[in-house]
Design a protein that fits this description.
heterodimer, A: 271 residues, two-stranded antiparallel ribbon, B: mainly alpha, 2 helices
Chain lengths: 271, 53
């Protein structure tokens, strides 16, 4: 009886940095176009924070203030955080789980593209949608809510919120590997909506019950919203470094969970 | 346990450790920990299985 030994030669693909950059950019571009053409994704991710902002920030409470900050300004920070979270979680988790379900990752595996480009594209697209949401909220605030803010503060707010999409993209990757295409959207909602409420994104943090305020300290959206509120002058005067530390730690732990999911997928499919 | 599996779970444990370190260490360490975490994920790639007929 003879046995045939299969020799697998691991060939390393050599690419110039420019060629690699082109691949990363193309992957990000087509990921963006894919999400843009998913009307339900675009409509829900963009419309929810905008609709809530118009209702609670412009129609109902536009002349009220929370502390020394006017409500339309305060709510740009909190609904901005809410929008960033939605765009990142739905963009990565729902996208990844549906790609896994359709077998799209197997097609990608067979192509010579760098595997990391797929994840980078998801994160970049989440950041792009996050930027669109913050810009839309700011445009509404300035034109209809009388929000006045120096350009440097606005740039800081935009930068903080867009950078803040990273922890939620990492969380989305982790969720995407452990949920199926049908269960991903309800699972995301089950985490996203209570987390938003408990972090003071719908109701200002100081009006939340004491128990919820204690829970909020362990939630990443609370830390991102406090960073954003700090920019508009309504933060809780806590150290920004602490908030960034918590967000970075959360990102790395979620990346660790996603790595377990990635490995689990590899073993299940090819092991 | 295959080599690929060991590498994968080793990477995951490294990322968890980075997360804990990010909470415990000075914020300046984030400048090292964040690129290191990205590098760990960059190494995540499908590996060809060998050792079987």
């Amino acid at each position: 009886m003879s046995s045939a030994a299969l020799t697998l030669n691991r060939t390393r693909i050599e690419r110039s940095p420019r060629h690699s950059l082109t691949i990363y950019l193309k992957e990000a571009k087509y990921e963006f176009l894919k999400n843009l053409r998913l009307r339900m994704y675009t409509a829900s991710v963009l419309s929810f924070p905008i609709m809530f902002y118009v209702l609670f920030g412009l129609v109902l409470n536009s002349h009220e203030a929370i502390g020394a900050t006017r409500v339309p300004t305060y709510l740009i920070a909190t609904y901005g955080t809410f929008g960033v979270m939605g765009a990142s979680l739905f963009g990565t988790a729902a996208g990844l789980s549906s790609d896994r379900g359709l077998g799209w990752l197997q097609v990608k595996r067979a192509s010579p593209m760098p595997p990391f480009a797929y994840f980078v594209a998801k994160v970049v697209v989440s950041m792009a949608f996050s930027a669109v949401i913050v810009l839309a909220l700011f445009t509404l605030g300035v034109t209809l809510g009388g929000v006045r803010m120096p350009a440097s503060d606005f740039a800081r707010l935009l930068g903080t919120l867009v950078a803040g999409s990273l922890p939620f993209s990492a969380m989305g990757l982790a969720l995407g590997y452990f949920t199926g295409p049908n269960s991903a959207p309800p699972t995301i909602n089950l985490i996203y909506l209570p987390m938003s409420f408990c972090s003071g994104l719908w109701v200002p943090f100081m009006f939340l019950p004491s128990v919820v305020r204690h829970i909020a300290l362990a939630l990443p959206p609370y830390h991102l919203s406090q960073l954003a509120l700090g920019v508009v002058g309504a933060g809780a005067h806590e150290s920004a470094a602490t908030h960034w530390e918590v967000l970075a730690a959360f990102t790395m732990i979620c990346l660790g969970v996603a790595r377990v999911g990635f490995q689990r997928d590899q073993e299940k499919m090819y092991g | 346990m295959s080599k690929a599996m060991k590498t994968g779970y080793g990477s995951a444990l490294t990322l968890f450790a980075f997360g804990v370190l990010a909470l415990c260490l000075d914020p300046r360490w984030l400048a090292i920990l964040i690129p290191a975490a990205v590098l760990v994920w960059y190494e995540a790639k499908p590996m060809a299985r060998g050792g079987r007929n």
